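Now read the record:
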Amino acid sequence: MEEQINERLSQVQIWKRIFLMLLFAVVITLVRWIAWIPILLQLFFLLVSGEKNRHILSFGRGLAIYDYHLLLYLTFATDVLPFPFSPWNLSAELKYPDEN
């Protein structure tokens, strides 16, 4: 048993995944703080004009989709690396992972 664990710990892929998960854990925290910008701006525009701003709506939607991609990667539901290691709009194309 210890031999198997030691073998896994010596694999570069596992350490790469751990490093990327730590990096993306910081990124997801920043994304969630940044998400307050469109939230507050949209609220302001709604109060002032009575309508949603489509540009802020688009930005907020993109941020939410990126957050979803980060969560999929952090929970091992996908091996597809999030932005900046893949295109920004790739997150929108992710499907619900198979349970194979």
In short: The mean pLDDT is 87. The chain has five helices and no strands.
